[in-house]
UniProtKB/TrEMBL annotation:
NCBIfam families: PRK11027.1-2. InterPro entries: DUF413 (IPR007335). Residues 92-118 are annotated as: Disordered. Residues 105-118 have a biased composition (Acidic residues). It comes from the Bacteria. Signal peptide: none annotated. Pfam families: DUF413. It comes from Vibrio xiamenensis. Belongs to the MaoP family. This is Macrodomain Ori protein.
Length: 118
């Protein structure tokens, strides 16, 4: 990570509300992505919210990526977009049933074609 020109955060970044066991233990992030979030997340959050002004070209590009996610180039930018989508987006719910409700007008009595006649 020595090639990153991004400022490390003043403190380590954690999200104890959405990821109480840590980013990597959530199963959503790799160890590398967790390291990026913990190290640079405080700075990325401050840049995103406008509390911090960008110092260099990489930080200026990060601001553009926050506004237009399609421009993400670096692992740092993609990791932040992944974090915001998981932390702020809707939680996916998967069901095992394909139909939500049975049709109230549907007749579930014995089908005449299936009834055996003696």
């Amino acid at each position: 990570m020595s090639d990153i020109e991004f400022r490390p955060g003043k403190k380590r970044f954690y999200d104890n509300v959405k990821f109480p066991r840590g980013f990597a233990k959530s199963g959503d992030f790799t160890l590398g992505e967790e390291e990026i979030l913990v190290t640079y997340g405080d700075t990325m959050l401050a840049l995103e919210s406008g509390q911090l002004e960008p110092d260099n070209a990489e930080e200026k590009h990060f601001i553009k990526v926050v506004e237009n996610p399609g421009k993400a180039k670096t692992k740092l930018e993609r990791t932040w977009l992944k974090y915001t989508q998981l932390a702020r987006g809707r939680k996916r719910f998967h069901t095992l049933n394909g139909r939500s409700k049975p049709d109230a007008n549907e007749d579930f009595s014995e089908d005449e074609s299936l009834v055996e006649e003696d």
